[in-house]
Design goal:
CATH superfamily of the largest domain: Uncharacterised protein PF11572, DUF3234
Order of helices and strands: HEEEHEHEEHHEEEEHEHHEEHE
CATH architecture of the largest domain: 3-Layer(aba) Sandwich
Number of helices: 9
Radius of gyration: 21 Å
Distance between the termini: 46 Å
Shape: elongated
CATH class of the largest domain: Alpha Beta
Number of domains: 2
Number of strands: 14
Strand content: 15-25%
Largest sheet: 5 strands, mixed
Helix content: 25-40%
Structural class: alpha+beta
Low-confidence stretches: none
Mean pLDDT: 90
């Protein structure tokens, strides 16, 4: 179990970890040699599970003592970390230990915190391949999936998306059985949907962090999906907030030149569908 000292600067460790992972393109953990990573209990809750990761191989090696003496260092690429390990850990309520020292002193962080910190480092330090379609492209020239891709790129490049609000509340489209929040790449695209019962609605900008953190969390809790870039004459692609998060991170890493593992089919996962 890791011990947390009050003198530890949690944000500095998180930022340093993210910076090293982006610089080297990988993180490290300890494994039993059969593919599974070592787990232990959290500092403040005996029932909580933590999987430790280190930004450098030598930092993982110094922790190989006592019960961990026979463990082996395991490299995890940035694509595997962001697109496979951390989403799975988040869905399983598993915490992440960051750069623990030889005494297993360190911090624990939420998987979502690490994904966001790594995303910021990629945006700050990496040159991204250009988007395939401009955000202000004619929407009638693209189908729902192309507009979905355009919206992912717009969030990455502009650091914001837009929705519609009416009387200071987000517009919830759909019905009680399947509600949606609308997301658009530009305020102009959002304004095109402000008609009929939404005639008084206005575009509302949502910042990068809010789209990927607080907004997505709130919508997931309320079982509200995202309708991505609807137009007056075409349906939108509907996805869960979790799927949209995963696709944003995967797209960002791809444009930064990192390899992203293919997603394995899961019987519980739903394919994006038209809203």
């Amino acid at each position: 179990m890791a011990e947390h000292q009050d003198t530890i600067d949690d944000s500095a460790i998180l930022d340093s970890f993210a910076r090293q992972v982006v610089e080297h393109g990988r993180a490290w953990s300890l494994s039993t040699g059969e593919g599974g990573l070592i787990e232990c209990s959290a500092d403040d809750e005996e029932s909580a599970v933590v999987v430790p990761f280190w930004s450098k191989e030598e930092n993982a090696t110094i922790c190989k003592s006592g019960e961990w003496a026979e463990l082996v260092e395991q490299s995890v690429t940035i694509g595997e970390l962001i697109c496979l390990w951390l989403p799975t850990m988040e869905s399983d309520d598993v915490m992440v230990g960051l750069d623990w020292d030889a005494e297993l002193t360190g911090i624990e962080a939420e998987p979502s915190e690490i994904r966001l910190a790594v995303a910021h480092e990629v945006l700050e330090r990496k040159t991204l391949a250009p988007a395939e379609v401009a955000a202000d492209a004619d929407p009638t020239a693209h189908d729902t999936r192309a507009r979905y891709q355009l919206t992912l790129d717009s969030l990455i490049d502009q650091k914001r998306l837009y929705t519609l609000e009416l009387e200071d509340e987000l517009i919830i489209a759909g019905d009680d059985d399947r509600p949606f929040v609308l997301l658009f790449p530009t305020d102009v695209a959002a304004q095109l949907m402000a008609k009929e019962e939404w005639a008084a609605a206005r575009p509302l900008a949502i910042a990068f962090d809010e789209v990927l953190d607080s907004l997505s969390g709130e919508l997931s809790d309320d079982e509200i999906e995202l309708a991505i870039y609807p137009t007056p004459d075409s349906d939108a692609l509907a996805v869960s907030p979790e799927q949209f998060q995963d696709d944003v991170f995967a797209r960002l890493l791809t444009r930064a030149g990192f390899d992203v593992p293919e997603q394995e089919d899961d019987e519980d996962d739903e394919e994006p569908s038209d809203a």
